[in-house]
Specification:
Layout lengths: L20 E6 L47 E7 L8 E3 L2 E7 L5 E8 L5 E9 L21 E3 L2 E5 L5 E5 L5 E5 L15 E3 L2 E7 L4 E7 L5 E6 L12 H5 L10 E5 L2 E8 L2 E5 L6 E6 L10 E3 L2 E5 L7 E5 L1
Antiparallel strand pairs: 1-2, 3-4, 4-5, 5-6, 7-8, 8-9, 9-10, 11-12, 12-13, 13-14, 15-16, 16-17, 17-18, 19-20, 20-21
């Protein structure tokens, strides 16, 4: 297989002594001293949402280095303040990422120059007086986990119910923002942004509310909103997890594909996998399962969709979308 993963590393785990991230990006040199390779990485899991740089069927090798260390194939290293688990997005010589203070009070969009590692913008886009506590999820998550989306001239950042914003990539200034989309994430937000045509699609699978909402990219206004349609039937389930709403939560990011010649959004939630029309939010189908807290993004290949079903009764569903 000639597909290769992104050349950009996620952050190392935060040091307990400094409580800061160091983001490391690779020196993009192809083998035997050939010219540097450049690749945009516009969203979570890359150009097509599958984690690969090369397009399916592309036999041309990208030529990324195969060995890494603190001194080998590293061009620069820049320390980034606060904490963030989101995937950096890359376009036009810029690397954008999100961070938040560990207490969840302040949320930032940061732009780093891809050539030099210099921080170009560090914009505080949201503040929360009373952020929802991460609770016992603090060791597994943070307040800046959802990944951003970038396109020419604009970058969109997302912090779950704490807020979603659009920034100008030339100036770093906020063009619009929303902080009125409720969801009790209960251990922090996870699902990343999805772009389709003129829409920015958010996934809110919390303990209290479970829905998708599509925002107009230009204005940030709501275009459609669709609630999860599965029947929970957990009111009489014994145990604290059911009482707290854990059995209704999920962390997955949808994947938009072309199935039978039409766009379709594959989405994994608690208790069911779904297919939606990304233009309208209309539910095409759902397949139920007896699990929750699903995190992996769906996979689509040769007309077949594959879903991981969750955390406690792990399984994989596959079928024609």
């Amino acid at each position: 297989m000639n597909h290769q993963k992104s050349p950009f590393f996620a952050p190392d785990k935060v040091s307990s002594r400094s409580n800061r991230w160091s983001l490391i990006f690779a020196l993009l040199l192809v083998a035997f001293g050939r010219p540097a390779t450049h690749a945009d990485w516009p969203e979570f899991r890359g150009p097509r949402g599958d984690g690969l740089v090369s397009a399916p069927g592309d036999a041309k090798l990208v030529g990324l280095p195969l060995h890494w260390s603190e001194t080998n194939n590293i061009k620069w290293k820049t320390e980034i303040p606060d904490r963030g688990w989101s995937t950096p997005v890359v376009m036009g010589g810029q690397v954008w990422l999100t961070t938040a203070t560990q207490d969840g009070h302040d949320y930032f969009a940061i732009c780093v120059d891809a050539e030099t590692g210099k921080v170009r913008f560090n914009e505080k886009v949201f503040h929360a007086d009373n952020p929802e506590p991460l609770g016992n999820g603090a060791s597994m998550n943070c307040y800046a986990t959802p990944s951003s989306f970038i396109e020419p001239g604009r970058v969109y950042v997302h912090f779950g119910s704490a807020g979603t914003a659009c920034l100008d990539t030339g100036t770093g200034k906020v063009l619009w923002k929303r902080s009125d989309l409720p969801c009790r994430h209960y251990r922090g937000p996870s699902s990343s942004l999805v772009s389709f045509e003129n829409l920015l699609i958010l996934t809110m699978d919390g303990a209290d509310l479970q829905y998708h909402v599509a925002l107009d990219k230009k204005s940030g206004e709501t275009v459609w909103k669709t609630n999860r349609s599965v029947a929970w039937n957990d009111e009489n389930v014994p145990g604290q997890m059911a009482k707290d709403g854990d059995l209704r939560k999920a962390h997955s990011t949808p994947l938009i594909v072309t199935a039978a010649g039409k766009p379709q959004m594959l989405s994994a939630g608690a208790k069911a996998a779904y297919g939606y029309d990304p233009r309208t939010g209309k539910e095409f189908w759902k397949v139920q399962y007896a699990d929750w807290s699903v995190a992996p993004r769906p996979i689509y290949d040769r007309g077949l969709a594959f879903f991981v079903t969750g955390l406690t009764k792990k399984g994989t569903l596959g079928g024609k979308a």
